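Worked example 2:
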Amino acid sequence: MTLMRVEAIIPPDRLERLKAALEEKGFVSMTISEVTGRGEQRGIKLRYNGRAEHLDLLSKVKIELVVCDYEVDFLIETIAEAVRTGRIGDGRIFISPVARSIKLRSGEDMARLETLSSRSLEDQ
């Protein structure tokens, strides 16, 4: 088993819906950050007091979760179902491996536990 980091960058107005969907499916541990950025839309044009303004960077929210590799596809489906509208600006999901995850309180090393667990299974 490999630990994977799943990062979703979404519009802020969809955060509560996504959090509820994640919790419903058992994904309760997450890190949430307010970020700015732009994608294909290259910002947006607004009209303010009769003048056109170009807003280059948009407010977004980044949700990060670390899960087991076999949970990644289910997590992606959960995120997509909660956030997708089919319009530009829905967001993006990034997936990357996590070399180690150490719990500061206890020193528990998830990578080591998984190695020990898989070795003990092979010994049986």
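The longest helix spans residues 110-123. Strands lie at 3-10, 31-37, 44-48, 51-55, 58-68, 92-98.
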